[in-house]
Amino acid sequence: MMAIPDPDLAVNLCGVRLPSPVLVASGCFGFGREMAAYMDLGELGAVVTKSVSLQARLGRPTPRMAETPAGMLNAIGLQNPGVEAFCTTELPFLAEAGARVVASIVGRNAEEFGRVAERLNGEDTVKLLEVNLSCPNVDHRGEVFATSPKTAASVIRAVKAVAGQPVLAKLTADVTDLVAVARAVVDAGADGLTLINTLLGMAVDVRRRRPKLAAVTGGLSGPAIRPLAVRCVWQVAKALPGVPIVGTGGITSADDAAEFLLVGATAVAVGTGNFLSPRLPLEVTEGLRRYLAEQGVATVAELPALFKAER
Amino acid sequence: MTNDGDGPGLQLAEVIGHHRAGVYHTLTLAASEIARQARPGQFVGLLSGPERAYLLRRPFSIHRVDWRGAGSGSVEVVFDVVGPGTRALGWLKPHDTVDVVGPLGRPFTLPDEPASCLLVGGGYGSAPLFFLADQLRSRGCRIDFIVGAATDERLFKALEARRLGRTTVVTTDDGSAGRRGIVTDAMPEVLQAARSELVYACGPMAMLAAVSQVAATAGVPCQVAVEELMACGTGICYSCVVPMTEPGGEVRMARSCVEGPVLDGAQVAWAELGLSGGLGGGPGYPGSLAEEVVGG
């Protein structure tokens, strides 16, 4: 094995060239503004924004988070300023900062998703859309569109009809047959997938005999869910070869990121890790560069082909 | 530091002191850049131990800073061992290192002219009020203190408060030190005697609601440093929001890590938090949310 002095980290995600495969996950980086104090946002593969909806949302009451073993639960409830304020206030900042933007969009029904996508059509800073079909912090499970192949597909069709950018569908692992949902959204026109969203969880304050979160349940994230997320990426990549996947779930190191890339992810997103350390995604990026050099791999895109599926 | 100009930064800081203050711990960290920039009311996020059994950074308000020029500054924080994060901090010895982000958040606003200031603290929530008191005194302000806790042993540096304040009232829920009662019991008489022009408060949310109510009744502006559960401390997770009433009357969720922790007590929508702002509920120091938030 030859050490490679300067491996190439660039990837092509649904036709968009990104200088690094390390993104930051939606809901785990705000709209990027606060993190510009710690890093050059242009060094990230892309900034996946907090989900934006047609109208502003206040979100849930507090407590909104609870720490759990190797992870955390959150029930933020999609607090965001609405797509119009996002375009006029947040996007110009991100453009100025040199960030490539993946806009995460959310809606209460297919029509709302379509209207948000339509508003973003023509915004040059937005390179891709990520359709959040799987936020667990909604009023009822019917709003977790990715629990049904049919409703997930209907949302993707509504978005694709008006979108000006390639579309990623963000799915949940809280389903019996993830591959069926993935296939349905790809058939409906999704250009790629983001796997996985947080998992619906719950924690109880036993002394006060009540849920730790005001919303009772919340999304579980962090290293605790990484093996599950890696399994999902591996399963879907095998079933749908050639479909770009952004792998996310509990990444806090370059080795964690490499797991996702080896099993078939085109790119990865650091989520909860941003809360631990504001420079973590750049540390993961540098670590990946060292990993590729050590492994004698010239480009990050080669990794899936080098994975030995049988032990 | 990772950034060139002013603003929060990330660094490994050496522990230069670890002491006990009653049941609490005080930890002094060599962090000159944070010390140079820090203002009273701001906080730092600490992460100790790469093999730690817990995930998230813990927020602590800055108790004191010592800045004597480039490369020789320190910041001091106070904590109570209540969970895995503070247990790990409790093990730190001089020369150990701890990962620090800061200074974070919006500080207390100081008066432009000398003013009479009432400082109200609950439990070790009073920690940032000592940093504030130093700066107010250097501006020629009069300071009066009210410090309270559930019991004598839960009071934080009551003696030092007595030294700094023109007058100081100590209250405990059980009467084991000072007056039996809660901090707001003493507020009307101190506000009147000291002709207080500004109130600064830090402690559990229920106490801050009650202090804001008393200050509003007396027509005195009140700044409160709030404590909400935080995952990041840097503005990106949206966990630590506090409902604020806008001038138009609508409610907005403000992140206490970037728009706070210091907020205008009159604008916090206490009723949305289930806190009427009245005096009936008491400050709730024992087992209060604040202990889990700052301490966990």
Describe the model:
The complex is a heterodimer of chains A (311) and B (296). Chain A is α/β, with parallel strands linked by helices and 311 residues long. Chain A has helices at residues 83-96, 110-120, 149-160, 178-187, 226-239, 254-262, 273-276, 280-295, 303-306; strands at residues 11-13, 16-18, 22-24, 46-48, 65-68, 71-74, 101-105, 126-132, 167-171, 192-195, 199-202, 204-205, 210-211, 217-221, 245-248, 267-270. Chain A has one domain (11-59, 77-198, 222-306): Alpha-Beta Barrel (TIM Barrel). Helices cover 30% and strands 20% of the residues of chain A. Chain A is globular and about 55 Å long. The two termini of chain A are 20 Å apart. Chain B is α/β, with parallel strands linked by helices. Helices cover 22% and strands 31% of the residues of chain B. The longest helix of chain B has 14 residues, at 205-218. Chain B starts with 8 loop residues before the first strand and ends with a helix. Chains A and B meet through strand 5, strand 6 and helix 7 of A and strand 13 and strand 14 of B.
